[in-house]
Write a structure and sequence with these properties.
By secondary structure, this protein is an alpha+beta fold. The protein contains two helices and two strands. A two-stranded antiparallel ribbon has the order 1-2. The mean pLDDT is 88.
């Protein structure tokens, strides 16, 4: 949450860029995983930040 909140905050626009940050961090990566057949129906997908990098766990 903190990673997306930080990525989506702008001192001038406040939290308005938050939606764009969600698209870039979560939705775009999730779409790539679906297209690569790494995520199938019923999969659990967890996004995490480790050492400043986005990690994705699929189970």
């Amino acid at each position: 949450k903190a990673y997306i909140a930080e990525a989506g905050f702008d001192p001038v626009y406040g939290a308005r860029p938050l939606k764009r940050a969600l698209y870039e961090v979560v939705e775009d990566r999730l779409a790539e995983l679906i297209l690569e057949d790494k995520v199938v129906e019923g999969s659990d997908v967890v996004f995490d930040v480790q050492n400043g990098e986005i990690k994705v766990n699929i189970s």
